[in-house]
From TrEMBL:
Pfam families: ACP_syn_III (PF08545), ACP_syn_III_C (PF08541). Its EC number is 2.3.1.180. It comes from Thalassotalea algicola. The gene is fabH. One of its GO terms (molecular function) is beta-ketoacyl-acyl-carrier-protein synthase III activity. This is Beta-ketoacyl-[acyl-carrier-protein] synthase III.
């Protein structure tokens, strides 16, 4: 039987940082208000598009695996923030990487997207259809935000994370996964005024906005992620005591704490970086996984549990068996194009528009 080992990992965080204190200069909020409710202290604002973030994370993952672009068979990009609806973002990533032999597709399952994409790519490896795939979670959530609404604009950030998976005879990589969707409540988390449901002849088009019913989302996220993780543990014939590290979706520190309490895990067993980046949607899990490896929290042979919950309402959990290598074979020294603008400067037009629209409504 074939398996799909994770042999490369990489992340891309744009350099412009927007702190809570900076947010408070144009939104009625404070560092204490945001931190106490979410655990978020800062987030990144991108000066490049989603494909460029995704491609940079992919380059770093390929370097870590020692794999060249022409040897990649598939590029799967999980994103809710495509650069274009037609063609897909994955084709742009393929173009940037020069991975001419790779198939390329996008998947939109919101914050659960990376897990959906990883399971799909893993399945293709395991049936022998492909040998290598790059799986990417990449988001530019700042583009969607209404910067006059503190209940949502404080939550999200931009970034990308990626893994490279390769066929192996050893039982490594994503061993078990459980995916699902609670569509009856899909309206409690949505981007309004976008897609073919919108009136294309409205002039001017309505501002994009995120409908976010926080308390309901919290309860459903904890329940779905917890049940998914428990199911995966049982499918893998493991117990919670066998889990070395939980890498959860980074949506809210309270959700992560609830999962930690449910499974009786120590702080050392739970990867948390929401304080630095906020919720980067489909990118949170691969970014957190990458940082866990980089910081030495992933040991050879580790049992890793991951879980996520997103709009739709999609949810999922997975059990990853790590291999022996926890250091990159090589490193990519490429960087994003430089910018001399601060996060507030990058957002200046959006902030002005949102505040003006809010005053006139």
């Amino acid at each position: 039987m074939k398996y799909a080992e994770i042999t490369g990992w990489g992340k891309c965080l744009p350099p412009a940082e927007l702190t809570n204190d900076e947010l408070a200069t144009f939104v009625e909020t404070s560092d204490e208000w945001i931190t106490s409710r979410t655990g978020i202290k800062s987030r990144r604002i991108s000066h490049v598009n989603t494909a460029e973030l995704a491609a940079m994370a992919a380059k770093r993952a390929m370097a870590a695996a020692g794999v060249s672009a022409e040897d990649v068979d598939l590029i799967a990009v999980a994103t809710s923030c495509p650069d274009t609806l037609i063609p897909n973002t994955a084709s742009k990533v393929q173009q940037i990487l020069g991975a001419d032999n790779a198939a390329a597709f996008d998947i939109n399952s919101a914050c659960t997207g990376f897990l959906y994409a990883l399971q799909n790519a893993t399945a293709q490896v395991r049936i022998g259809a492909i040998k290598r795939a790059i799986v990417i979670g990449a988001e530019r959530m700042s583009w969607f935000l209404n910067w006059s609404r503190r209940e949502t604009c404080v939550l999200f950030g931009d970034g990308a994370g990626a893994v490279l998976i390769e066929a192996t005879d050893q039982p490594l990589g994503l061993i078990e996964a459980k995916l699902g969707c609670d569509s009856k409540a899909r309206d409690i988390l949505e981007v309004r005024g976008f897609g073919t449901d919108m009136d294309r002849y409205e002039n001017p088009p309505s501002a994009l906005d995120i409908n976010f019913m926080g308390q309901d989302i919290f309860k459903r996220a904890v329940r779905a992620m917890g049940q998914g993780a428990q199911t995966v543990v049982e499918q893998a014939n493991l117990s919670i005591e066998d889990v070395d590290l939980l890498v959860p979706h980074q949506a809210n520190l309270r959700i992560i704490a609830a999962l930690q309490k449910q499974f009786k895990l120590s702080d050392e067993q739970v990867m948390v970086n929401i304080d630095k980046y906020g919720n980067t949607s489909a990118a949170t899990v691969p970014i957190a996984l990458c940082e866990a490896v980089e910081s030495g929290r992933v040991k050879p042979g580790a049992n890793i549990m991951t879980a996520a919950f997103g709009a739709g309402l999609t949810w999922g959990a997975g059990y990853i068996k790590w291999g022996e290598r926890v250091t990159p074979i090589t490193q990519s020294h490429e960087e994003l194009p430089a910018t001399d603008k601060t996060a507030k400067e990058l957002l200046a037009t959006a902030i002005e528009h949102c505040l003006k629209t809010s005053e006139n409504s």
